[in-house]
Amino acid sequence: MPSKLDPHILTIQGWLTTQPQLTALAIVDRLREKHPEEFGTRQHSIVQRLLRALRRKTAEQLVAEEPLGQATTAAPLPGGVDGSGYVGPDPSTPLSSSKPGKLPGAADQSTLHPCHLSNIC
Asked: Which whole number is the average pLDDT over 32-53?
């Protein structure tokens, strides 16, 4: 079924070539200026559908023209990607302490005075 816009498609495509950001309302306004007896706000939805189809067709053509070898991708960011936000040492690395299970910087309880252990001095 022919559309009321069929005779105006080339004109609309020309407008979109020079101003790709044009909205359907702006196109309807331009058509109304040229053909007030044919176009008004009631044609907004058919212009929206045409505009969507033209933009989809243009996007598909651009994607089809892009050689795969030249497609750009974002470079991976340095660091972890698990999203945890943990910035400490890698948990899989062994601790540098000579005693197993002892945290670095922790005091050895066998060398502490009894007062330090119970706060009774």
From this structure: 92
List the domain boundaries for the chain: 6-61
* C-alpha triplet 54, 55, 57: angle, nearest 5°: 65
As given in the structure block, the two tokens for residue 121 are: 């001095």
Q: What angle do CA 74, 53, 26 make, to 5 degrees?
A: 100
Which DSSP symbol is given to 24?
Answer: H
CA dist., res. 9 & res. 118, Å (int) = 89
26: exposed, middle or buried (C-beta count within 10 Å: 0-12, 13-18, 19+)?
A: middle
pTM over 0.85: no
- Continuous H helices in 7-106: 9-18, 24-34, 44-65
Structure tokens at 28: 């309807």
At 2, the amino acid letter reads P
